[in-house]
Specification:
The chain has one domain (15-126): Up-down Bundle (de novo design (two linked rop proteins)). It has helices at residues 18-39, 43-64, 69-95, 101-126. It is built from 4 helices and no strands. Helix 1 (18-39) runs antiparallel to helix 2, helix 1 packs antiparallel against helix 4 and helix 2 packs antiparallel against helix 3. It is elongated.
Length: 127
């Protein structure tokens, strides 16, 4: 028997997690930035940026399906590492003139906030 979702009802655990929702929100802007890079023929940079951004939400989602807090914390740690990779990509692109620092500052701020949230969540799971 198929169960229909009611409006606002969450199907997966990760959908209820603020840390996942915030990452999903800022990922849209970073995907748009990757599109801009592609239009400038920076295909490899665009591909790498998309992959690192997607890895953040993917690992939060995958970890939420874990049966233990330890496993979940491990996936959150991988998500945090992908977040650092994303920040690095943005900074390297800026340092090499592909992006302006004022164009990425809001993304760096969102990544920093997300990093703090992930770390707090990891610590909660491990305590």
């Amino acid at each position: 028997m198929e169960r229909r979702r009611r409006q606002g009802e969450k199907q997966f655990r990760f959908e209820e997690l603020e840390v996942w929702r915030k990452a999903a929100d800022f990922s849209a802007g970073l995907f748009a930035l990757a599109e801009e890079l592609e239009q400038r023929k920076c295909f490899r940079f665009a591909e790498q940026l998309r992959a690192s951004v997607l890895s953040i939400t993917n690992n939060i989602a995958e970890g939420s399906g874990s049966l233990s807090k330890t496993d979940f914390a491990g996936f959150l740690n991988i998500a945090r590492r992908s977040l650092f990779e994303t920040a690095n990509i943005l900074m390297i692109l800026s340092r090499n003139g592909y992006l302006r620092i004022d164009g990425i500052s809001q993304f760096l701020a969102a990544l920093e906030e997300e990093s703090r949230m992930l770390l707090a969540f990891i610590r909660t799971l491990r305590s």
